[in-house]
User: Fold this.
Amino acid sequence: MSVTVRVQTARFDAGALLNALSGRDSDCGAVASFSGQVRGGHGLLALELEHYPGVTETALERIARHAVGRWDLRQATIIHRTGRMEIGEEIVFVGATAPHRRAALDAVSFMIDVLKTQAPFWKKEYDEQGERWVEARASDDEAAARWLTQTEDMPA
Assistant:
């Protein structure tokens, strides 16, 4: 079992991260991932993410370890960027390997949905009118709640 968690300002290559998960364990028939990027639209020019160093990494590690235990994963990876990012730049990568596809797919969905509400990140958007801090969305809370009500409480 391997857990990798990083919070960084540097860009990352989601394809390389996915390739690093593939083929490392002959018992794993499934590799699943999610990569999120800055989307344009509504005049958005860029976004900036801030975090609480140390606390954020601990929260992400807790989420990844919970996924490993719940779905018997062999590998779980969460890479999250902070700082200013332009349209099209990747923000987050979540990956998992498991013997079977459903476990890997569910674990990735769980990790991305839960980190949106359980990891301390703050988002500022930049557009033609200026900049503004973004409030948490009810849809993110609902997505996380679906997972968290299906399982025992996450350990602190």
Observations:
- DSSP finds four helices and eight strands in the chain.
